[in-house]
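Query structure, 667 tokens:
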């Protein structure tokens, strides 16, 4: 999972040459706010049914607002008419900028708090869990699992959230408990009121996850996304370092008894036995030696059905799959598992035989959408490719049509390619996926010419162009399209609201015997061995000599899709500099409210923004003390609605670092 480079953060110098940008940039109709010919309706979204028929948004008790990831709140005190009165109500500092200053350059603040009773409970990148008074922001307690700070985490020090579970059969200590996963691969249970370890869970409150093989370094295997609970089972995924080796840790999803920590089941996305129904789609050595296909992104749960919905990633390594011929079923998929047994209910693959690092990167959305006057339970999945797949929740079959289309087939010797890939029919990609020399962007004629030449010298045949020794453009880049921030669903308007990035990567395969020398030559770039494969790889963002993307702006978009029809209702550039809305890359996701608002941080200009959910019009923005590259949340407390965001930045993603938690309310 790649992060944005700091060099993408636009400076005042860029604004000084904005005139040149407007003259030279391609696709500027986006920048000016118009439609771009990709099935944008442009009309305000209508309300198909009263929201009272949908029992979501009554609190924020889970990472995504609810176990199904709506990121929706019924709070409606803040509206488009009064959002201009929103101001800082309180601010809390975690202390990381002083206590862990030496490690902040390896950290990403991506957490979303949850509301348990009248306490906000959040985690820091270093897995401290903190409870704050919901009305004042005063600290009630904090728990430090004392993770290994010397582990050199592959995916930075990251904690996106925690999970709350209430034992219906008990009272007293740990009847209400908080589950948190750690960067050093532990699952910990603490009392929600006191932060004391739940002694009856595992070994004095924790279970250590066994990665199944020796690690290359301590930080190769982490837990970065929140656990989920279904019934009395708690489930965790894992984040594993990419591209180090072919024979790597398995991406197993693991489940434990929520009371005792006893193992319940584990499910490996890669079939290790010949009798597994998915085995025929793994045509190489049996059992397959590859690892990963892990679930590093947040999962979702359907309590009524007793299902856990898992977004899986690519097998190891990312950019060469000749040792694992076949479609590699269950990798790069949305998977429904029985929460009690771990048995597979269904699986839908979004990318066949992934050699592009196009993981399923975000929490599956479990929504009830309106179509032809009826509610339908679906799973909506946003992807790195810019596609939105909408599936029937019971069967995994497409709810909105999907078709297989031919894709480029020229690959390096020894590679295996799927002749087709799945494409949604109703909804076009939310960001472009083909780049030509004529599309090149630049701040000056020379800058643009350099980008034009770089594109012309690369293999660039559109989406799903295989990696090459010459160098191939991946557009969208391996960070998306969509990423872990995911999407929000507005049940009043049937709208899925999602932010996506619009930048490119240049990926070059390196013969295995040359990787060491290339690492020395390109010591300031990412060069990985993919040990065990015939090729290593080099990955870099496609940037101009001035350090801005060679792809035309906007480089970040916020869009709304009608999930009943697949129609794009509106799409707007997200983020800018000095009042100019260019559209900036973002890390983090949106939330929506019954008051008709969409809130989102994420962008490199260190701002929180409010949009009209019906039209996509930006209504307000607020400068944060550090980059708010996390998903916000909202809640009501003692008659007042608050909007909260963790603002600590992302050391690899640009923007200012910090350790703030901020709550906004009407003044």
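Result returned for the query:
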């Amino acid at each position: 999972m790649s992060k944005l480079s700091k060099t993408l953060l636009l400076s005042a110098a860029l604004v000084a040459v904005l005139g040149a940008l407007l003259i030279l940039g391609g696709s500027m109709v986006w920048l000016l706010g118009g439609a771009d010919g990709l099935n944008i309706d442009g009309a305000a979204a209508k309300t198909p049914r009263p929201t009272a028929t949908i029992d979501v948004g009554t609190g924020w008790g889970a990472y995504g607002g609810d176990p199904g990831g709506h990121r929706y709140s019924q709070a409606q005190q803040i509206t488009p008419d009064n959002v201009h009165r929103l101001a800082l109500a309180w601010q809390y500092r975690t202390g990381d900028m002083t206590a862990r200053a030496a490690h902040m350059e390896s950290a990403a603040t991506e957490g979303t708090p949850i509301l348990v009773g009248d306490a906000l409970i959040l985690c820091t990148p270093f897995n401290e869990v903190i409870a704050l008074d919901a009305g004042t922001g005063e600290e009630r307690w904090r728990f430090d699992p004392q993770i290994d700070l010397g582990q050199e985490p592959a995916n930075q020090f990251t904690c996106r959230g925690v999970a709350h579970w209430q034992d219906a059969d008990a009272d007293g200590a740990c009847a209400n408990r908080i589950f948190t996963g750690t960067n050093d691969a532990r699952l910990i249970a603490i009392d929600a009121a006191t932060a004391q370890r739940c002694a009856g869970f595992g070994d004095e409150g924790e279970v250590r996850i066994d990665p199944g093989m020796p690690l290359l370094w301590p930080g190769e295997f982490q837990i970065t996304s929140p656990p989920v609970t279904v019934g009395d089972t708690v489930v965790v995924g894992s984040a594993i370092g990419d591209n180090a080796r072919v024979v790597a840790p398995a991406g197993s999803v693991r489940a434990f008894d929520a009371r005792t920590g006893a193992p319940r089941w584990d499910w490996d996305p890669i079939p290790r036995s010949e009798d597994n129904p998915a085995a025929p789609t793994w045509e190489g050595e049996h059992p397959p030696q590859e690892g990963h296909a892990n679930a590093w992104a947040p999962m979702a749960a359907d309590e009524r059905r007793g299902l856990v919905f898992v977004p899986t990633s690519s097998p190891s390594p990312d950019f060469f799959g000749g040792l694992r011929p076949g479609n590699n079923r269950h990798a790069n998929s949305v998977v429904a598992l029985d929460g009690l047994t771990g048995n597979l209910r269904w699986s839908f693959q979004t990318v066949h035989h992934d050699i592009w690092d196009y993981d399923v990167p975000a929490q599956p959305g479990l929504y009830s959408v309106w179509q032809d006057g009826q509610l339908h339970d679906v799973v909506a999945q946003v992807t790195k490719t810019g596609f939105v797949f909408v599936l029937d929740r019971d069967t995994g079959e497409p709810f909105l049509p999907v078709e297989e289309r031919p894709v480029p087939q020229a690959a390096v010797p020894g590679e295996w390619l799927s002749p087709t890939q799945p494409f949604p029919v109703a909804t076009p990609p939310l960001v472009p996926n083909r780049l030509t020399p004529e599309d090149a962007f630049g701040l000056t004629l020379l800058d643009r010419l350099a980008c034009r030449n770089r594109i012309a010298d690369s293999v660039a045949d559109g989406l799903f162009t295989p990696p090459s020794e010459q160098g191939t453009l991946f557009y969208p880049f391996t960070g998306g399209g969509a990423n872990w921030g995911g999407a929000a669903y507005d049940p009043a308007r049937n709208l899925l609201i999602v932010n996506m990035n619009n930048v490119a990567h240049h990926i070059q395969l390196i013969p295995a015997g040359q990787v060491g020398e290339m690492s020395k030559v390109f010591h300031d770039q990412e060069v990985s061995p993919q040990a065990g494969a015939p090729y290593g790889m080099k990955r870099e963002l496609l940037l101009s000599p001035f350090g801005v993307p060679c792809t035309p702006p906007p480089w970040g978009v916020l869009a709304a899709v009608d999930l009943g029809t697949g129609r794009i209702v509106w799409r707007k550039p997200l983020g800018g500099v000095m009042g100019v809305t260019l559209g900036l890359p973002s890390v983090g996701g949106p939330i929506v409210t019954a008051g008709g608002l969409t809130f989102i941080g994420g962008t490199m200009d260190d701002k929180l923004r409010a949009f009209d959910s019906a039209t996509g019009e930006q209504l307000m923005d607020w400068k944060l003390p550090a980059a708010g590259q996390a998903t916000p949340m909202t809640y009501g407390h003692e008659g007042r609605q608050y909007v909260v965001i963790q603002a600590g930045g992302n050391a690899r993603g640009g923007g200012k670092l910090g350790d703030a938690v901020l709550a906004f309310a009407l003044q």
